[in-house]
Amino acid sequence: MDTKLIAGLQDRIGSPKVLTDEETLRTRAHDYWVVANLRAWRGDALSLPGCVVRPGSVEDVQKTVQFANEHKVPLIPFGLGSGVCAGIAPDANVILLDMSALNKTRFIDETNLLAGFDAGMNGLEAEEAVAVQNLTIGHWPQSIALSSVGGWVSTRASGQFSTAYGNIEDIVYDIEAVLPNGDLVTLGKAPRAAAGPDLRHLLMGAEGTMGVITGVTLSLRQAPEKRSFSAFYASSMQAGFDMQRQLVQSDWRPPVMRQYDHPEVDRLFKEHVRGTDALLLIVHEGPANRLDLERDATERIAAKCGLAKANTMVCGQWLERRNHVPNWQELFEQTIIADTVEVSAKWTDIGAVYDATVASLKEVPSVVNASAHSSHVYQTGINLYFTFAALNDDPQEMEKIYFECWDRVMKATAKHGGGIAHHHGAGRLRKPYLPLDLGDSGVQLLRTVKNAVDPAGIMNPGNLVPD
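Request: output the structure for the sequence above.
Response:
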């Protein structure tokens, strides 16, 4: 980046907030995306941002965005770096806006069950702040200790307890953001509004392309009175899907419903393997009386669908291990390239999506694992989390295999009626496949909105919107 631009930015917001040392630039060069980590491990040259800005206030964010807009300098918002779809890919011309210093709890309102946070607030710290008041946000992504509340909104995140508590769009009350021209807006004022389109959704899932989220108000709920577990074996994935459908369509909402196919049971819960059965784990929580009724109904529906009871200890084991994330470098050193890909589909399509995608992944010569589990359930359908792993001792080939596996998951899912992105966002990884979900006209509408909101094209260029 031109030194005069950096000097001008330092004059605008203060020199200590504009960082150019190599260590800072290197640690903000990418997010947790597998391929970015693979390239770093291989020793590929990193593309570093021109500078990193660490704002200490919303006013600092406004000044930085205004500066970027005036000088037509690309700007990328950066939360805590837990993204997995290549949403962060700076170059030497980019200002990277590190939001981690905006990390305060703004308020906790026990009467209206609302809590406000700076966008850079760590997700686990936000949950712990409301837990002191015997409340919960109810949003538990696997990355909760590594992600920010602003990042949750920006990627349309989903938590492990979403079947009862909803996804982030069901939890967000209002969003404070700086638009690409530097204006500050707060979108959302009341429990519900009919004041035109819901403009919060311009920022939810926009992944830094429509502005910079600076603050979020989230709705809360009382901490659950009681928790208990159910677990069942299903003779096939379809049998388990049918049971889950009947349960939620009977208006029961256990917050956690996770169904693992046999390869995943064998990999994650070896002591609970039964033949080639799938394994369904259910966590019930809430008022004690309702919970007992829900668990009884769950057992009746499971029996009706031909599922057999499993040891509920497996649910406790999952709770203990649920946020363990892989260390990519350890896998690379074992010549393994792996990833997870989350999709979703209607009940009538999900079986075909599962069968076709697993079969397609197994056709890749180096693949040693192709499996899936479900983890988010709706009245109308369910999500699947595909996992692939391949063995190859050539680091260049590992990358090619990775993209082939992703391509197969995207195309098999779309071919059989599924949606290609459930909750990790699109980033640069999924953006070529967005026409499969949006259609050509939908992609053009997305471009039109982007161009209207960000006419100078400064906000995270190259991300989300297909070329």
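The CA atoms of residues 125 and 299 lie 36 Å apart.
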